[in-house]
TrEMBL record, chains A, B:
GO molecular function: DNA binding; DNA-binding transcription factor activity
Protein's UniProt name: GntR family transcriptional regulator/GntR family frlABCD operon transcriptional regulator
Species: Algoriphagus antarcticus
Keywords of this entry: DNA-binding, Transcription, Transcription regulation
Residues annotated as domain HTH gntR-type: 4-72
Length: 235, 235
DNA sequence: TAGTGGTCTAGACCACTGC
DNA sequence: CAGTGGTCTAGACCACTAA
């Protein structure tokens, strides 16, 4: 009868509120009893939702106190950029993300690095290209591919928090569950040298990743190229 | 009244059975109803236990079928070396580990990369240097530091499986629980170029890692330098 | 069709935190 | 002390799997 389970509704509502910043880190969520009466459901149902949010790492629960917003994501899916030298400590190094190519529907490349399933090939791909900058300096070029399946309006609706992962989980209920990531140091090609404002042949960090999700057969593929003169990449 | 919750008992029993091999990968656990009557408890209690085992990654549950044993553990702490090109598929590329410097007691370096606790400084460090080779070719140079605390005979007893991690867990009950890892691409210094049989200035992959363990305040620090011409590093 | 896990209810008692 | 999350019960109907 019900399209979606009630605990899923509660889970999604709370998750959206946390990710969008309605609750901040350290805040208490409404108590279980409050959620029960608000949604008109039994406590075990609310607890199911909260238990899942705890597994996702979004909250922590304390007896006698309540459900506390954590929102320290497991860094497993994030490529985080850190200043390398001590000098960076004082300096600002806010990282900005800019689209070189906004998400667009396209074909998979013929010589795509990873093996694709029949399902993925049928669905086609969504491609985007982003750069991460510190001030005027380009730190990373990242090309991302995902399978174009059941992602309604993905290319039309703007990202949440400028983040692919926040957008996937809030708008599409897709959560990253694991990653295979490969690292190499390669000499900059002319194209990369241009993008990263380096000389041809300069050392570039290449990161090739395949992210698994809670949706069967749905993966996110990412190819990143980094100038690590002043920054390290944490992964 | 109860020292341990009933669902914890069920969880522990099943976990032990899985890890000890009583159930194999792909096997079905007893059904929820069977577990209920076996333990004489309510179904929601059994489900709590199974839900936790699912979160631990030990089982998978399927509607209409049952609880299936998975037991794929991830080895978060390993740097694994993979052939990069398709050509490597057919070829042998067994990786050999050789000591350049066997484990030895020493002082911490003055300009050590990571901040050390008072406890670590007091204890002093154990240092070792290893290379990984594919045939005659050096793929990686890795320098490792650990705090010299309560590691009886660590420098005297040979490694188990040539592996630091196997040795730490079997001989010293120390298990890796997490890692912070930083990646950079750097030009080879003369020393690195020599070790890795490359030209000066060639791109080198640098991996700096701090591993956390189940022993409070005990960390393993590792600095690795890789020739990624023919291999990628998975981490 | 019989058995499985998925969802849900309306209670209950407990240990703990904070006032 | 009132309120919180932790544990637990004894039912219920559902969708799914396999025989």
């Amino acid at each position: 009868m019900k399209d979606t389970a009630r605990y899923r509704t509660v889970q999604k509502d709370l998750r959206r509120s946390i990710i969008e910043g309605k609750y901040r880190v350290g805040d208490l969520l409404p108590s279980e009893n409050e959620l029960c009466s608000h949604y008109g459901i039994a406590r075990m149902t609310v607890r199911n939702a909260l238990s899942n949010l705890e597994t996702e790492g979004l909250i922590e629960r304390q007896k006698g106190k309540g459900s506390i917003v954590k929102f320290k994501r497991k860094s497993i899916e994030l490529l985080s950029i850190k200043g390398f030298t001590e000098i960076m400590k004082g300096k600002e190094h806010k990282i900005d993300t800019v689209f070189l190519q906004a998400p667009m529907v396209s074909q998979w490349e013929d010589d795509f690095y990873w093996a694709l399933s029949e399902m993925e090939i049928q669905a086609g791909s969504i491609f985007m290209s982003r750069i991460r900058m510190s001030g005027e300096k380009v730190i990373m070029v990242e090309n991302t591919f995902l399978s174009n399946s059941n992602l309604t309006d993905f290319c039309e609706i703007p990202f949440i928090n400028k983040s692919l992962f926040d957008t996937l989980i809030v708008n599409h209920d897709i959560e990253m569950t694991g990653v295979v990531q490969k690292f190499r140091a390669i000499p900059a090609t002319e194209e990369l040298a241009n993008s990263l404002q380096l000389g041809v042949g300069a050392p570039i960090l290449e990161i090739i990743r395949k992210l698994t999700t809670n949706r069967e057969g749905f993966f996110v593929y990412s190819f990143a190229y980094c100038n690590t003169d002043d920054f390290t990449i944490e992964a």
